[in-house]
Design goal:
about 190 residues; alpha+beta; four-stranded antiparallel β-sheet; two-stranded antiparallel ribbon; 6 strands; cytoplasm; Ribosome_recyc_fac; RRF_sf; protein biosynthesis; Ribosome_recyc_fac_dom
Length: about 190
């Protein structure tokens, strides 16, 4: 593996982290119900944690209400508990086997809670980027150890990876601040 291949691989993986962040931020809605809102909520299903969408049908009833229809009768309770305990601040209502999930009105407090969720998503993305930087730098160290590249080449490669990391972290900060502004806009 060459230095340019390591940099290209790191850049590709960092770009994927940014796309994941954009996808996660798009699921955080300010006023309307969205089935994607529950995508990252995990529920216990026969001893393992799975996304809600794998054990139930999630649909939008109206602009402010979601319905969650479990595929198995015994999953209504665990689904209700998982949604209630998620960081989304939702309070599902059981109606037989069907769960109705009303979207809370966006009070100032709710907006602040959503900005905390956005900041956590941003921090998770930064951690992923930093882990990719570490992996690339470890690859350079192995290449020096195996005498595939010189120490000068390693230093230049690490500098390039650091610049790339800084660029992606800056992009994450921009995305997070834009989403926070969108949420706090009255």
């Amino acid at each position: 593996m060459s230095i340019s291949e390591v940099k290209k691989s790191a850049e590709t993986r960092m770009s994927k982290s940014i796309e994941t962040l954009k996808n996660n931020l798009s699921k955080i809605r300010t006023g309307r119900a969205s089935a994607a809102l529950l995508d990252h909520v995990q529920v216990e299903y026969y001893g393992s944690m799975v996304p809600v969408s794998q054990v139930a049908a999630v649909n939008v009833i109206d602009a402010r209400t979601l319905s969650v229809q479990p595929w198995e009768k015994n999953m209504a309770g665990p689904l209700e508990k998982a949604i209630r305990e998620s960081d989304l601040g939702l309070n599902p209502v059981a109606m037989g086997e069907l769960l109705r999930v009303p979207m809370p009105a966006l009070t100032e407090e709710r907006r602040r809670d959503l900005t905390k969720v956005v900041k956590n998503e941003g921090e998770d993305a930064k951690i992923a980027i930093r882990n990719l930087r570490r992996d690339a730098n470890d690859t350079f160290k192995k290449m020096v150890k195996e005498k595939e590249i010189s120490e000068d080449d390693e230093r230049r490669g690490q500098d390039d990876i650091q610049k790339m990391t800084d660029k992606f972290v800056s992009e994450i900060d921009t995305l997070v601040s834009q989403k926070e502004a969108e949420i706090m806009k009255v």
